Amino acid sequence: MIRCINLSDIAINNEIHDNFIIEALLSIDQIMKITTTDVWNTYKEKSKQTTVAQNLQAKILSTKMINATNTTAQAIAKAMEKANYTTRNLLI
């Protein structure tokens, strides 16, 4: 319907023409606001999901590093115990 409008046919002082144009512009404005808001909300939600995923990955990596450090410390302690035991037995 809007394609059929010829701007030269619109009467400036015609209330019906004014109302039609106002309604059309308001509809376009609402469509633009809704579209923009939806795009922005989708972006924010994806950003939150990305941040949560990155934080989870960092936490998992941190836990793995802590576990590896603990395992290494235990292995070193066992090796030291064996070395001390062997040294004591050689001295006896």
Comma- or semicolon-separated keywords:
92 residues, mainly alpha, 84% helix
Task: Characterise this structure.
By secondary structure, the protein is an all-alpha fold. It has one domain (17-91). Helices cover 84% and strands 0% of the residues. It is built from one helix and no strands. The termini are far apart. The model has no long low-confidence stretch (mean pLDDT 88).
Report strand %.
under 5%
Overall mean confidence score, pLDDT: 88
What is the share of helical residues? over 70%
Low-confidence stretches: none
Molecular shape: rod-shaped
Total strands: 0
Kindly summarize this structure in a few lines:
With 92 residues, the chain is mainly alpha-helical. 84% of the residues lie in helices and 0% in strands. It has one domain.
